[in-house]
Amino acid sequence: MITILADAAVQAAQTAAITGNIQGGLGCLGAAIGVGLVGSKAAEAVGRNPSASGKILIQGILGMALAEAVAFYAIFLGR
Question: Which domains does the chain have, with CATH numbers?
Fold first, then answer.
C-alpha cells in the first residue's frame, strides 16, 4: 500500500512538471505562428506598395517583437 502511494506521488510530481512544459511549448508555438503571419503580411504589403517599405519594415519589426514577447511570458510564467 505504501509503494502505491509513493508511486502516485511521483506521478503527480511528473505531471506537474509536464504541464509547465506544455504551457511553454504552446506559448512558443503561438508566437512562432504570429511571427510568421506578421512576416508574410509585411512581405505582401511591400509587394503591393514598394515605396512604403521603410514604414512597413518598422511596423513588421514591432509586430514580431510583440508576438515574441508572448513566448517569453509563457516560458517564465509557466515555471
Answer: 2-77 (1.20.20.10)
